[in-house]
Design goal:
Shape: elongated
Distance between the termini: 23 Å
Strand order of the largest sheet: 2-1-6-5-7
Bound molecules: 6-chloroguanine
Number of helices: 6
Radius of gyration: 21 Å
Largest sheet: 5 strands, parallel
Strand content: 15-25%
Order of helices and strands: EHEEEHEHEHEHEEH
Length: about 240
């Protein structure tokens, strides 16, 4: 998979894609991630990437020209209908559809993902109208820009790529993959400062351990995220 990130703060991404699973996936050739400065696609003499909103109001709006030029360069066209198959151009914005594990799974199937990091104040709507295939928000809170959201989406997608994880079962056991939160985990020592690891995990009875894990996962989900147990929300 190829992932291109478009941002006005490319330095923001310097370290984050060089650790853990993303780093491993890059080195293994499972994913190719490139971060692009939107300013490099601004061809006016001041390399302007944003401007004041028509109609007035606070903040600055990202201009359309550099973003159209970037998409033409990275995708080959700025006509959405003619994007190569398996191309998704995602705008990270608080106005988007909420990012869920189901969305991560869908994006993990594509060949080319372009992530446009919006600014909180806005992106010229013509970017949306002509270029964007998906608008995604990572939750109901305000971030100053889409950069942190692009990192979240990249991490969630890359760890789903075949062979990105060390063990081929670990993604299936994650929270949300079956619609429930994960069960508790313990490692040595079996007793630490008077706190003992649940006995069932020490006895080697795998059927009992599975049953215990399932029960704890259900209990935790009921306690923390009752909403996940509703049938209508069971789309994880
Ligand atoms: Cl994708 N962008 C911004 N600016 N704020 C957000 C968000 C994205 N998702 C949640 N809040």
């Amino acid at each position: 998979m190829k992932i291109d990130v478009l941002t006005i703060f490319p330095d923001f991404f310097d370290a984050v894609f060089d650790f853990g699973i993303i780093r491993r996936a890059k080195l293994a050739g499972i994913v190719d991630i490139n971060v692009h400065d939107i300013r490099e696609y601004a061809h006016d003499k001041h390399k302007m990437v944003d401007d004041r909103p028509f109609g007035g109001g606070d903040g600055m709006v990202l201009k359309p020209e550099p973003i159209f030029a970037a998409i033409e360069s990275l995708v080959g066209t700025s006509e959405r209908d003619t994007y190569p198959q398996g191309t998704r151009v995602v705008l990270l914005t608080p106005q988007g559809k909420q990012f869920k594990q189901t969305v991560a799974k869908e994006l993990a199937e594509v060949q080319h993902l372009v992530l446009i990091c919006g600014r909180y104040e806005g992106v010229d709507e013509r970017v949306n109208d002509a270029l964007v295939t998906d608008e995604i928000s990572i939750g109901d809170y305000v971030l100053s820009g889409g950069e942190a959201a692009a990192i979240v989406v990249t991490d969630a997608v890359v760890r789903l790529l075949p062979e990105a994880l060390g063990s081929d079962t670990s993604a299936e056991n994650d929270s949300f993959s079956d619609g429930l939160l994960d069960c508790p985990h313990y490692t040595r020592p079996a007793e630490f400062r008077g706190m003992r690891v649940p006995e069932v995990l020490l006895n080697g009875n795998h059927a009992e351990i599975e049953k215990w894990r399932r029960e704890r996962a259900l209990e935790k989900t009921r306690l923390m995220r009752d909403d996940l147990l509703d049938v209508k929300n069971g789309e994880m």
